[in-house]
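Memo to structure team: turn this sequence into structure tokens by end of day. - J.P.
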Amino acid sequence: MLGIFDKDLVNAPKELNSPHAPAAGHPHRVVEKPNQTAPEECLKGFLSTHPNAFSLSFAKNAATLAFAPPPTPYPDHRLFSGVDDIYCTFLGSLNNLSSLNKQYGLSKCGNEAMFVIEAYRTLRDRGPYPAHQVLKDLEGSFGFVLYDTKAKTVFISLGADGGVKLFWGIASDGSVMISDKLDLVKASCAKSFAPFPTGCMYHSEGGLMSFEHPTNKLKAMPRVDSEGFMCGSNFKVDVYSKTKSMPRVGSEANWADSWGQQA
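Reply from structure team:
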């Protein structure tokens, strides 16, 4: 899968953007301007190399989602679903999907992508639970990217067990790319990329936070590649730094606003 989002839509953490500077121990290394591939060219490459792949673009290309159905028989679990102008790409699987569907009043035949859309709509419209609590209830290896075309919001999350991997970065034009294909992200983002942090969630209005440890702040940890150059930072839970206490999310509250207050 591949997601490309305009910089005005997704405000990625500034630490994800590499300074393209030599790391300590390499003070005289000359940094050449990286040969980066434009995001639209990466999209074309993704579509041309994956049989039956397709893409959807929204709001004058402010957001693009590309998806390649898994081969048969397939070694991994990938799903794409769209309901009421909300689109979701889901990677992995949920061990407790049946009980979650029952809890949310969904059909027994509903898949993981459909569940994520319904859970998101519940959070967005009624907000009976904090977002982190909903995600902590998901059992299994998972990662998903969701785009709400009406609200123009992006919601991303990655499970804590590391069974699914996602990578995100900032391309040369400032757009944010996210994919399970590392080569795609590196091609457009050069050094300004990092693995998406496990056990975390990102909302375009609320930012990045840990759903496993919602009362702890995230700390940017600079990365250095094998050549000694600074790359986009990893994000780890800072056990010594606390956020404000999590507010109770009532039926009249906006879950994204409540999330954003924690940063």
